[in-house]
Amino acid sequence: MELSDLKIMLGLSDENKESDSLLQLIIKNTELSLRFKLGLNAGEDIPSELSYIPLEVAIRRFNRVRNEGMTSYSQEGESITFSNNDFDAFESDIEEYKRRNNSDGLLYMIDPYRRYDV
């Protein structure tokens, strides 16, 4: 994920460098979290089919900055509820990708010499 893409989605100008360090940290942690959920090794890239997830999760994470630990927030009639896990909305996509790519960590073996009539 590119920093510039995240800044565009958040409506931040490229000239605004104040938040770059925070955004870079959010990008790094979001990509690490997705890599862990997918069971990827250090050298493996996030699959292109799921490349939209880090950007969407990073936006959610940025919007929660300074509201960590809260599940809801209310002020003057405005109410905001936060998800417990930023990846919740994408869990079915992650599971479907893993199912299709057999990335569950299991090795399936077939014994070609097994006799089924015994």
Automatic annotation (TrEMBL):
**Domain of life of the source:** Bacteria
Protein name (record): Phage head-tail connector protein
Q: Which organism is this entry from? A: Ligilactobacillus salivarius
Organism classification: Bacteria, Bacillati, Bacillota, Bacilli, Lactobacillales
